[in-house]
Amino acid sequence: MESPPPLNRPVLGIETSCDETAAAVLAPDGAVLAEAVLSQVEHARFGGVVPEVAARAHLHHLPGLVRDVMARAGVAMADLGGVAASTGPGLIGGLIVGSGLGKGVALAAGLPFVAVNHLEAHALTARLTDGTAFPYLLLLVSGGHCQCVAVDGVGRYRRLGGTVDDAVGEAFDKVGKLLGLPWPGGPHVERLAAGGDPARHAFPRPMLRRPGCDFSFSGLKTAVAQAVARLPGGALPRAEAADVAAGFQAAVADVMADRAAHALALMPEAVALVAAGGVAANGAVRAALAGAAARHGVAMVAPPLRLCGDNAVMVAWAGIERLRLGLADPLDTAPRPRWPLDAMRGA
Ligand code: KG4
Ligand code: ZN
Predict the structure, then answer these.
(1) Which end of the chain, C or N, has fewer beta carbons within 10 A?
(2) What is the pTM (predicted TM-score) of this model?
(3) CA distances to 3, 66, 171, 263, 264 from 85, in Å
(4) CB 305 within 8 A of CB 16
(5) How many A from CA of 3 to the centre of ligand 2?
(6) Within 6 Å (CB) of ligand 1, which residues are found?
(7) What are phi and psi of 133, to 5 degrees?
């Protein structure tokens, strides 16, 4: 096989799959030349992401954001080596906006386009931040995803297990709502939990010690709702809410450690345990995963907090990994609301 020409120009990355509008320009070695993330605040009053509102906000903000990162990077369109845009999975309106703009730039400047799988972008971030080598175990824990994935190479993924009901970030967000916290609840639950007693409520640990590495969070969420309902009515005193948050977070952390251990047993060749997605920002979850990794004698890698949530640095990086392998995509590649990692094309 002929090897692809070396990538020696910067890559533009675009992220619009959910409620973050983001753009980034990375040098071919991964150095971040400029990046920007706009978290849409439009959804807070609805208590969740409204797809049509998100799509309009992407359309409104993205062109200016791309211009801004290009200017700050000091890079003209013609200087780019490629354009990478999240093309799935996610909310279709946003995916159309982001991939459409990316394709437009690629067409106008005669550049290769990479249709990035958003989950692959999360999965490969550890290679940018820590130079993690394949193969590794990925725990993808976010608002929409909760799965254990064997990462064998770029585009080469095997799903080992995942949630049978809610994603873990969704559980954090629902518990946040029960406790009257702003949306999205995850970071607020973590902050509140810091002042609480994790042992006050004996919450269930769903799936603990079950074979395989599936997750389930609906029972835990129900237990939290019942505990909140048993507390005195009216506005929940902060100390009470803190105990609930701490108990919930401790249960999640225990489940994570157990599931990660099971997944590592299913993938003895893994050289590292990589945590990715918004929930990987949670200190208790990180600590639990670090414990599981240490017990298995593998490295634990979690990207810096700002690269855990949705961002365009990871999208540009996934583009770089693919372009290095000569894996560009045709401009008529359609955005995909559903796009499982193990249905990817790889090298
Ligand atoms: O990866 P992400 O930005 O978006 C996707 O879902 O793809 O993840 C967002 C999720 C939300 O559910 C949010 O509440 C959760 O990650 N999250 C956290 C924390 N920071 C973000 N959950 C727990 N603790 C945190 N510190
Ligand atoms: Zn994400």
Answers:
(1) N
(2) 0.94
(3) 24, 12, 28, 30, 31
(4) no
(5) 31
(6) 18, 142-144, 169, 172-173, 184-187, 190, 277-279, 281-282, 309-310
(7) -90, 155
